[in-house]
Amino acid sequence: MKNLNKDQLRLDLNYIARIIENNSRVLDLGCGSGELLHKLAQEKNIRGHGVEIDVENICACVEKGVPVIHADMDEGLGEYPDKSFDYVILSQTLQAVKKPHIILHDMLRVGQTGIVSLLNFGYWKVRSQLFVQGIMPRTKTLPYQWYDTPNIHLTTIKDFKNLCAEGNITIKQQINLGQARKGGVLYNLFPNWFTSLAIFVIKKNK
Questions:
Q1: Mind listing the domains of the chain with CATH numbers?
Q2: Residue 179: predicted pLDDT
């Protein structure tokens, strides 16, 4: 089995790819153009499926041979039976759905393990722009203007961890990332301040 080429994946997708075990069943919610599923199918022999709402992205998935359905996650995952996947992935998408708490519980219904990557609105550069300039922040990970952003539920790492605690969800692993690499000591000591992007491996408590 070949090693994944990390240079061909977005930073968080590279770390997510490392978590996925060989021969797994994987559902990628908001799979984009299918880069992650395509790589995993080639190099880890996974059986992958994607859910995507953008037609251009769906066409890109089809060109790569990635199985994908055109669907709106906010309408639920009712077409998938309980525990039909080993992993369900939600990468940089949670902030763009209408009901994040429902999506989390639905992904843990259809999957044994959930993997969520999210943008941290508590990141110090975001805080400083809002405090000093008095305008909605823009960073490399949050590049949109307030009036054209797809993000409707911006969250912090602390908010997400609180949501998991309230929803009886266990965080099995947390990976704190900077804009171009895995974070160091400060990222891990004060992730809500110094981490711009985080990955969580989650499971539903029994």
A1: 6-13+20-204 (3.40.50.150)
A2: 56
